Amino acid sequence: MSSDVNHSLLAFLQASPTPFHATQSLESFFHERGFIQLHETDEWNIQPGQGYFYSRSGSSIIAFIAGRKPVLEGGIRVIGAHTDSPCLKLKPQPGICTLGYQQLSVEVYGGVLLYPWFDRDLSLAGRVSYLDTQGKLGSSLVDFKRPVATVPSLAIHLDRTANENRTVNPQTQMSPIVGLGSEFDFRQLLKAQLEEQKVANVREVLDFNLCCYDTQPPALVGIHQEFIASARLDNLLSCYIGAEALAASDGEHTAVLVCNDHEEVGSRTDIGAQGPMLQEWLQRLVPDAEKRQRVIRGSLMVSVDNAHGVHPNFKDKHDQAHGPVLNQGPVIKFDADQGYATNDVTSSFLRWLGAQGESEVPLQSYVTRADMRCGSTIGPLTASNIGIKTVDIGVPTFAMHSVRELAGAKDTQNLLELLKKFVLITELPKK
Fold first, then answer.
1. Helical ranges in 170-305 per DSSP H
2. FRET pair for 166, CA 20 to 30 Å: which of 115, 142, 207, 368?
């Protein structure tokens, strides 16, 4: 069940251990396809039919096609996703020594499923800021790539109830071991890694934004390779498929892909969905406030973030009539409390859209059990900040927020086909 898009997705996941690397990978993707890089500090000269991209803070990115048809007539097709994933992040002073072991002090980023992080071959990646030999500030991405750390489990002989009701304390039980010794200068270690990566003239490492990641590469698994197993499927899968869909635009209508950082921690930053990044892009595209409001109301956003597939071992965790199955199509997500921004008009449009063309895209529905809470997405945040009609969708997955998640290999193709239809569709819903 493998396909070219899945092999490309696996390569993207492997090259993107952090939001910084994911954004860099997306920049390379668009550059290779003829998109022109912009900078927010420059004046823009946008030409109809051309593709453009720019990033903010190195971890959020906007890419768009300036349509030949005026946006006041055709509206804007917005695809939204996020670049961050739950993980273990290093603290500002991470180097600690305990009983002769060198360890890293970490904190939890987002809603991490902690158990799967034990006994993994972990590496480190992210961004490092430094002072160079000329006294100037600089920064560089860093990726150790090889396994440099692990969080060993406690043997069952020392905790006979480990398989019953054990909890994990992230402060006291999740510090990765990186070596032996009674001293540990972590910044000196980073300086050596920068030099190994050919970053010249580094005098002193000042600060960093680094996380641990599992070095096991992404893979197609299953008897017939029906599944994709990888870290960061939530939500780099959506980022990559959104990029492929945008690149398939014919340039007739304006379409944009926005991939925000910090979704997993609430999006309350200048680069998150509650920040001004997309709003400021709209202001540049349509400077007149009244026209911009009219354009927004004639546009639609598809917020793409993974959904929960019904688990065969835990089927009681799902509503009986709303248990999405892997490889049975993307999922439209509903929530009465507006944890998702879908309404009947936007969901109906998407169902109609999926049926257009030679091949129909199957769609499923998801709503959380009435006695449980759903997760969050950038959909409601963007909809409330900008006023754009929105539908929340995603591919069904298992083990969301684990160090290794599972999705359907066919669903990536279905999602891509659906988003291509969205980018190319002539008319958007008017209501």
1. 186-196, 233-247, 277-285, 289-297
2. 368
Q: Which residues pair with 209 in a beta bridge?
A: 127
Q: Would the pLDDT of 216 be above 90?
A: yes
pTM: 0.96
- Structure confidence at residue 323 (pLDDT): 87
**406 assigned to some structural domain:** yes
The encoded tokens of residue 151 equal 């969080």
How many angstroms separate the CA atoms of 431 and 297, rounded? 8
Partners of residue 123 on adjacent β-strands: 213
In terms of Cα–Cα distance, which of 112, 376, 106 is closest to 231? 112
Give residues with Cβ within 8 angstroms of 173, minimum separation 6: none
Residue 224 falls inside a structural domain: no
Helical packing angle, 233-247 and 19-32, nearest 10°: 10
Last residue of a domain, one of 214, 241, 263: 214
Q: What is the CATH number of the domain that holds 151?
A: 2.30.250.10
Segment 115-135 shows an average pLDDT of 97
Residue showing tokens 């998801």 = 366
Side-chain-side CA neighbours of 103 within 13 Å: the count stands at 17
Is the backbone peptide bond immediately before 343 cis, with ω within 30 degrees of 0? no
Whether 28 and 51 share a structural domain: yes
Q: What is the CATH number of the domain that holds 34?
A: 3.40.630.10
Decide if pLDDT at 267 tops 80: yes
Token pair of 234, please? 């939530």
Q: Which residues contact 160 (CB under 8 A, 6 or more apart)?
A: none
- The whole-angstrom separation of Cα 336 and Cα 63 is 32
At a CB cut-off of 8 Å and minimum separation 6, what does 252 contact? Answer: 67, 68, 69, 74, 424
Q: Do 357 and 258 share a structural domain?
A: yes
Give the range of the structural domain holding residue 101, as residue numbers without chain letter.
Answer: 87-214
Q: Which residues 6+ apart lie within 8 Å of 311 measured at CB? A: 317, 318, 398
